[in-house]
Amino acid sequence: MPKAIIIEKHGGPEVLKLQDVKVGSPGPNEIKVTNHAIGLNYIDTYHRSGLYPLKLPSGIGLEASGKIDEVGANVKEFNKGDNVAYASVPLGAYSQQRIIPSNIAVKLPDSISHELAATLMTKGLTTNYLLTKTYKLKAGEIVLFHAAAGGVGQIFAQWANSIGAKVIGTVGSDEKIQVAKENGYEHVINYSKVDFSKEVMKITNNEGVSAVFDGVGKKTFKGSILSLKIRGMLVSFGNASGPLDPVNIPKEIQPKGLFLTRPSIGQYFKNRKELQVGANEIFEKVKFGKIKIKISKKYNLGDAKNAHSDLESRKLLGPAIIIP
Ligand SMILES: NC(=O)c1ccc[n+]([C@@H]2O[C@H](COP(=O)([O-])OP(=O)(O)OC[C@H]3O[C@@H](n4cnc5c(N)ncnc54)[C@H](OP(=O)(O)O)[C@@H]3O)[C@@H](O)[C@H]2O)c1
Fold it and tell me: How far apart are CA 316 and CA 45, in angstroms?
């Protein structure tokens, strides 16, 4: 019988339990997939801990890549044997085999392996919408990205560089400075040692950056605002250090006429066609060497709890995957 990680209660990494699961047959608009590689994402820890509450018991994980075993009666766009990847609810990607709605899957080109796809889908789609849709990053601009050596962070600077923009990155340890630089960050600040907003002002001759991409949340929010130039945009897209405190618009946003947005993948890739276009743009960047991916660690499915511990203790030096 296939195995999957199930959580019966919210809590620490120890609530991630490997169990046998019955998979069954796909409904009319579904596909049955054997997963070959699973993406590890920080959002998985929010689902596990209950920061984003779930109806329990629940599977966990948004992202995987695998091969189709069976297609439902109405599914026309896929065939048995196709290689596909996905990065979306319903949760349950931490599994050997599962059934998913066909409209969340994209086809993989031959040039993209399952391991690469599981590393790229969530983090690549996120980067794609952050710098091409939420904020249309242009050549010659300089912006700030927090947690520069992390999964999204590594792709972000490479993509920004490929369009001629420069990125200042922040990292939580000196060990990560080199990792961020290797991924294309022009300046790297260890924000656990120095006030990053002051450093940003020094680097930009007191002007500030035109956009800040902040997936760290609670600890960086105020400094991110201080780092922006007049009419800059704060893109708050995650909360690795905890959820944001309420925002005081007259005090924090009004003085510089800032823009504040809190986006998610689903708002930018609303259907299968948009998802496939967004994914193809990433696959092309990888194919032509504009984005190079180094998987920092691979875990077995039964070790998912160690994967979460490493992610939350900030030990990982880049994107990691789980092999089912
Ligand atoms: N809205 C969306 O569409 C969307 C989609 C994907 C991801 N995200 C968000 O993007 C962010 C990055 O995701 P990811 O999967 O690539 O993770 P990641 O960046 O690989 O890991 C999170 C990083 O956050 C930093 N961090 C700062 N304070 C932390 C704390 N108190 N505890 C733990 N980590 C802390 C750590 O880097 P340092 O040690 O260098 O500080 C850590 O490596 C997350 O916030 C995630 O939720 C949002």
Answer: 14
